[in-house]
Design brief:
Helicase, Ruva Protein, domain 3; Rossmann fold; 4-stranded mixed sheet; single chain; 15 helices; alpha/beta
């Protein structure tokens, strides 16, 4: 029995509690899944002493769900951070009704798992897409999606399905353009360019990321290090080993005009092309931008800088932000790269 948070909430005082009782009654002898359950919790209303409709739902669940003797199984599903916030801030009895300390945690899909999802989605008889997607294209889709796993909102199976649908959409547009006389491939099968949506120049950059550094003089040692990084990445990927630890933070030092900031601005695109960052977005700021006017303000400024760019969720296994600091004797700039 599947319900969302909105199914429990009413529009008037007392209505949420009654709707919750009715749903719990219907769920007897069944499993009740409350999807995105954290939407029931409004921390602001709880802290202010007001009882929101969602809080009434949670209070009713605590009241009516006694525990092991109940002839129903209730599952609350949602994002971990929001669910934990709900259990910490809502009715204290909620934790005794659910095993909040030992939740079932569904880890991100591996690349092999994503490949299985892609193949199953494409080969589903209801969609009949098998004739359009070659194995090479499917593999490319999975690798492209895998690069997004460092993002805090990585969609796993949904991200694969979205990438497939976007590729199909671009294929349709390409075939329409071909009929109009545009110089584009006329093959009816989905091609790599349909997946990437890249121009020929961008595709070449994807094939050889170090092209980004072409035309920059005086970077012999730096280019050598980047070439070694590229070789190390290729070796680890061939062995099936993780590569995330190869993404480092950097300090660029030198006199004015030596290319520090120019190279730093290219690094996000380079790391993205190498597959170490999920996007090539760059946030450029200065030390002054991160310095507060009073004790504690600097920390908040730095946190806001990251959170505005969707890099608020960080763990020991995911590097959500990557920093390059460039400095001369007089000035210092910090480049924040969000993965």
């Amino acid at each position: 029995m599947l319900k969302s948070a909105s199914d429990f909430m009413g529009q008037a005082v007392g209505e949420s509690a009654q709707k919750t009782k009715d749903i719990l009654k219907l769920a007897e002898g069944k499993a009740l899944l409350i999807d995105e359950a954290y939407a029931l919790f409004d921390g602001a209303s709880k802290s202010s002493g007001n009882s929101s409709y969602g809080q009434q739902v949670l209070d009713t669940i605590v009241e009516k769900v006694a525990g092991e003797s109940e002839d129903r199984a209730i599952i609350m599903a949602g994002y971990e951070h929001q669910i934990r916030e709900m259990f910490r801030g809502a009715n204290p009895g909620l934790s005794s009704r659910f095993d909040a300390d030992y939740p079932w945690r569904f880890e991100d899909f591996s690349e092999d798992d994503l490949l299985e999802v892609a193949v199953a989605y494409i080969e589903n008889p209801k969609r009949d897409l098998s004739a359009l997607f070659s194995h090479d294209v499917i593999t490319h889709i999975v690798k492209k999606v895998s690069k997004q796993r460092a993002l805090h909102n990585f969609g796993n199976a949904r991200a694969v399905e979205t990438a497939i649908l976007k590729a199909k959409e671009r294929q349709t547009i390409r075939l329409h353009d071909a009929q109009s006389g545009c110089p584009v491939p006329k093959t009816k099968r989905v091609i790599i360019e349909d997946v990437d949506g890249r121009t020929e120049e961008e595709r070449a950059l994807f094939d050889d990321p170090l092209m980004i550094l072409e035309g920059l003089e005086g970077l012999g040692d730096f280019k050598s290090k980047m070439l070694q990084l590229k070789l190390n990445l290729a070796e680890k990927r061939a062995q099936g080993r993780p590569v995330g630890q190869l993404l480092r933070n950097w300090i660029f030092l030198g006199r004015p005009g030596t290319g520090k900031t120019t190279v730093a601005r290219k690094m996000a695109k380079l790391m993205n092309a190498l597959g170490l960052l999920a996007t090539d977005r760059i946030v450029e700021t200065s030390a002054l931008d991160l310095t507060g006017e009073f004790v504690g303000a600097s920390k908040k400024k730095v946190q806001r800088r990251w959170m505005r760019r969707g890099a608020a969720c960080c763990s020991s296994t995911r590097r959500m932000r990557w920093v390059v600091m460039t400095s001369t004797a007089r000035t210092r700039k910090t480049h924040l790269y969000n993965s």
